[in-house]
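note to self: dont lose this again. the chain is below, predicted strucutre after it. 257 aa total, dont forget to put it in the shared folder this time
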Amino acid sequence: MRVIVFYKKQSYIQGDYVGSRYPGARKYGVAPLSGFFPIHASQAGDYEFIAQLLTSAAMHNATGGFDGNRCYEAAQRGEISDPYLCGMSNYSYAYMEANFFIINSALDAYSLLNIYNGDTDCQHDEFNECSIKQIGDFDGWESDFMDQVEAASQFTRKGNGAFIQSCLEHCAVEDSKTFESLSIDGMTVSQALQQWWESSGSDPAADHTYTPCTLNKLGEHQCNPTCPNQVNYLEISRMKKRNVPSTPHAYSTPMGL
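---
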């Protein structure tokens, strides 16, 4: 039996636990879609959205869903100051044991609207109405996103891989046409995922890692011509920033310190 898990943020949190439920599996892997949400300040410099996530996790004692989460186990050993941080993608990713293939945009539309919450007037049409300064802002976000992904040893661990592109999208490859057409250097998402899954499971991560280009300052800003233009994409209706009232919380910084 071979088992591969596709899901969003929950794959980072529960991927190892699900693997433990298939002890007889000949092969197991995790390929989360649009689930990496960086711990990052908004354009205004606050961490309000991240703080709301952590506060919600604490209020609901979300650690009840952390069975088999290696990050949570490390927190129990005192290696991480706050166990609720294990609900964040970059913390759980850093402790993942299962073979892992990230599918994500470094300019994820949901993250830009909710976490960054800046330059919102041009977050459409693949950034083509953005000013040069705004493109610089998004380039900075993309660089910070990649820094957080690459900070984990899992990013270069044998058996792992990633397909991270620059499209303004969230979960776009749920659409079969996009899954077959979105590409980096001629390699589509579907091809990259298939090659990773059919590999030995111990290939160098570099053999299955595809990283984003940088937005163009002049002309058409999107550097990847295969991006799906999300103006008419159904998912956009599920990404619009929610008007969540500001509430007191204990997390005024990304680490809750």
